[in-house]
């Protein structure tokens, strides 16, 4: 038995090493063969200008154009284009900017399709052609259209429209050999109407044109099948589902399903312009952001190596592998990388340190307890003990990422993709790659003889100081709650006093396009407009040497200042376009984002309630709300813009805050099930705080070093991003200890703690019984 244990360890190490090699080989292959698509801010893309047209029944006004923007957003998401920009320009134009589109013409065609889907009973064939056929169209909505074979059919007024459609999917029918087809699911009322129209058609004999039902898309019959002979007269096809066939290819079927599912445009649109546009950020801004990322990552790696020595160096190698895996995954799923996304990606490297720090701190505890004979056995115990905290914190984040992906749209959906990839890659990095490297190094004779070089043979200065002093931080939890409430009210009052300065993505603004005699570099124009008092102006090159300036709403005097500034750079200046534009983060997108975020918080609360206790989940989500209010309030007091970059930072802070609380509550759960469970709940919570504080400090330092580099060295847009995250990291670290923990203590005292008559001191409270699940975990 004693001989089998080393052999089993060696076997498991080889297995993990093989998995790590396969993952890294796949990541390298993908990274070399599939480049990541860059966003509009880094590379530019294609701009398509659409104009809405009035019909006899609908006027192409601002309201109809806003509805058109939302339908187009759904189509672009279905096309697989991430991080687009879609805004209303004027009352009847829509400006669509698409990054990295392979076929701009195909995208323009799909966006321009009206997708007016209607279903018509067939009255028979039309007599004559041309003008005679047109004259045969009645006044009751009848029309004449050629079917798939060119035979002209007289169609009755439509009985169903695209509004009756619930969904559509392209499927390949292998059983009947019919090839690709589109399955259409009708809504409740639509299913009844479909049964009625097919039931009436079934009353005519087979071969009669009147037994057919015509499905029309954009005034073209795409399918006119006969009702199957098995369908009885008056019964119709029930079930609310039908199949559209027509010898479709794979691409045609998917495009048709996209148009039907994406919804009909409320008014027709016409493509009036298509051009190539430059990046919204200049080369200097991109270069500064890249250097800040490199320096911040290097500082974080240096910090980890200083603290954990050899294990820190190996963790740094694993983090580099994490970066490669994340990059390959982004390329594989076709995600679009923007500058805030790149900054978030770099921050994720700092946050991925968390899993390694958790393992190393647990290994230090095992080593300090003298219960493990060697560094390797301490590492093994550290990985085993830290697994539950790593798993729970990452699962809560994955829940949020999944809901953001499935329920939100636009940049919020893209953030869900990036977040999910980062979480999965960090788990592979910490639990597989770091473990393989660390256990291999710890088993070397040279390391075995010199355990001090591993970095886990001592408990560290932070833990030593805490053990010497043993402060009882949770003696008076209500004071911490009062302090948290005071800070939250002080920060949150900024929202009421100063208000929120929403950026152009939320409010819309003004778009001005210039043509100059001398071509103006976009970087020079940005700097000049910033000096003139317009630091948030978005400047892009467009077409053949033209320049587009997008700003918040301007007065006529301010617009004249912008024009004069551009004229000073480019000589004689002609204003090609001057229009008000709508928000790129429209009302429907904001509603979807808020819905997804609300459901994500509810799902996290439910998960934490199941894995821990309801009071832990409630405390964690309450601390999260506390962090969000403070962050938004501070930005309100500072007068900083609430824009798309801030939205990305806010979502990142939410994930970070929950992780901190989960790690702390995991330790409380462990203490509740251990030998010290007879201690009071406040004492156990205080002990958990002291035991996890070294991890909290080291993880926070890793994130702060990267964020400080971004704040000091990067472009202004990333400075606000880094500032938001610095505030969020600081507040999130504080709230997990001094908001979530005291709140959990107070909730316990009121719901399941000792009786008030016996609570003279927190040190004499009723012992906390372990639940059955908690006892099973340690048995």
UniProtKB/TrEMBL annotation:
Pfam families: Sec_GG (PF07549), SecD_1st (PF21760), SecD_SecF_C (PF02355), SecDF_P1_head (PF22599). Residues 66-122 form the Protein translocase subunit SecDF P1 domain. This is Multifunctional fusion protein. It is found in: Cell membrane. InterPro entries: SecD, SecD/SecF_arch_bac, SecD/SecF_bac, SecD/SecF_CS, SecD_1st, SecD_SecF_C, SecD_SecF_C_bact, SecDF_P1_head. Keywords: Cell membrane, Membrane, Protein transport, Translocation, Transmembrane, Transmembrane helix, Transport. Residues 752-779 are annotated as: Disordered.
């Amino acid at each position: 038995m004693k001989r089998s244990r080393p052999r089993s360890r060696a076997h498991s190490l080889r297995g993990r090493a093989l998995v790590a090699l396969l993952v890294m080989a796949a990541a390298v292959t993908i990274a070399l063969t599939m480049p990541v698509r860059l966003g509009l801010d880094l590379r530019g893309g294609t701009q398509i200008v659409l104009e809405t047209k009035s019909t006899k029944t609908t006027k192409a006004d601002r309201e109809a154009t806003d509805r058109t923007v939302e339908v187009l957003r759904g189509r672009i998401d279905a096309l697989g284009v991430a991080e687009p920009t879609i805004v209303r320009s004027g009352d009847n134009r829509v400006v669509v900017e698409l990054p990295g589109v392979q076929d701009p013409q195909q995208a323009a065609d799909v966006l321009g399709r009206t997708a007016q889907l209607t279903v018509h009973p067939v009255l028979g064939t039309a007599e004559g052609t041309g003008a005679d056929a047109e004259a045969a169209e009645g006044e009751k909505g009848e029309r004449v259209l050629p079917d798939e074979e060119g035979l002209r059919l007289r169609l009755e007024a439509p009985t169903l429209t695209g509004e009756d459609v619930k969904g559509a999917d392209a499927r390949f029918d292998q059983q009947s050999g019919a090839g690709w087809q589109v399955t259409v699911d009708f809504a409740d009322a639509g299913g009844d109407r479909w049964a009625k129209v097919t039931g009436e058609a079934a009353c005519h004999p087979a071969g009669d044109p009147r037994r057919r039902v015509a499905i029309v898309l954009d005034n073209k019959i795409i399918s006119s099948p006969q009702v199957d002979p098995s369908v009885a007269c008056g019964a119709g096809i029930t079930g609310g589902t039908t199949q559209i066939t027509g010898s479709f290819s794979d691409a045609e079927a998917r495009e048709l399903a996209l148009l039907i599912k994406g919804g009909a445009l409320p008014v027709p649109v016409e493509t009036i312009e298509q051009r190539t546009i430059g990046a919204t950020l200049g080369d200097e801004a991109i270069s500064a952001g890249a250097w800040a990322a490199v320096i911040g990552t290097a500082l974080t790696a240096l910090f980890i190596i200083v603290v954990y020595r050899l294990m820190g160096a190996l963790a740094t190698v694993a983090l580099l592998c994490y970066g490669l895996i994340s990059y390959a995954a982004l390329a594989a799923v076709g995600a679009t990388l923007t500058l805030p996304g790149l900054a978030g990606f770099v921050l994720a490297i700092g946050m991925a340190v968390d899993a390694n720090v958790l393992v190393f701190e647990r290994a230090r505890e095992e080593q300090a307890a003298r219960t493990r004979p060697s560094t390797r056995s301490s590492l093994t115990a550290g990985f085993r003990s830290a697994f539950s905290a790593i798993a729970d914190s990452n699962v809560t984040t994955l829940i949020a990422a999944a809901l953001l992906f499935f329920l939100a749209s636009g940049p919020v959906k893209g953030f869900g993709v990036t977040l999910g990839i980062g979480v999965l890659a960090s788990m592979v990095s910490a639990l597989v790659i770091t473990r393989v490297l660390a256990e291999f190094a710890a088993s070397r004779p040279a390391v075995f003889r010199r355990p001090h070089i591993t970095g886990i043979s001592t408990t560290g200065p932070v833990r030593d100081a805490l053990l010497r002093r043993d402060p009882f931080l949770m003696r008076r939890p209500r004071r911490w709650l009062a302090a948290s409430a005071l800070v939250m009210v002080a920060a949150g009052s900024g929202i009421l006093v100063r208000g929120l300065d929403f950026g152009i993505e939320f409010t819309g603004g003004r778009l001005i396009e210039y043509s100059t005699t001398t071509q103006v570099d976009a970087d020079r124009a940005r700097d000049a407009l910033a000096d003139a008092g317009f630091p948030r102006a978005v400047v892009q090159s467009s077409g053949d040497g033209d320049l587009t300036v997008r700003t918040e709403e301007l007065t006529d005097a301010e617009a004249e200042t912008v024009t004069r500034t551009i004229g000073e750079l480019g000589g004689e200046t002609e204003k090609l376009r001057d229009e008000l534009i709508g928000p790129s983060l429209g009302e429907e997108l904001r509603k979807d984002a808020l819905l997804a975020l609300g459901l994500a918080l509810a799902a996290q609360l439910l998960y934490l309630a199941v894995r821990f206790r309801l009071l832990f989940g409630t405390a964690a989500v309450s601390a999260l709300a506390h962090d969000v209010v403070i962050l938004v309030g501070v930005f309100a007091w500072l007068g900083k813009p609430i824009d798309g970059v801030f939205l990305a930072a806010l979502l990142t802070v939410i994930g970070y805050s929950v992780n901190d609380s989960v790690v702390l509550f995991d330790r409380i759960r462990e203490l509740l099930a251990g030998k010290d469970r007879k201690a009071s709940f406040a004492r156990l919570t205080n002990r958990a705080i002291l035991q996890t504080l070294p991890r909290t400090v080291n993880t926070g330092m890793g994130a702060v070093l990267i964020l400080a580099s971004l704040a000091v060295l990067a472009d202004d847009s990333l400075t606000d991003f880094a500032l938001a995250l610095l505030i969020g990291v600081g507040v999130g670290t504080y709230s997990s200890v001094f908001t979530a923990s005291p709140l959990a203590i107070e909730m316990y005292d009121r719901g399941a703690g000792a009786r008030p008559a016996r609570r003279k001191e927190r040190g004499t409270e009723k012992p906390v019984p372990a639940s059955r699940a908690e006892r099973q975990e340690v048995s």
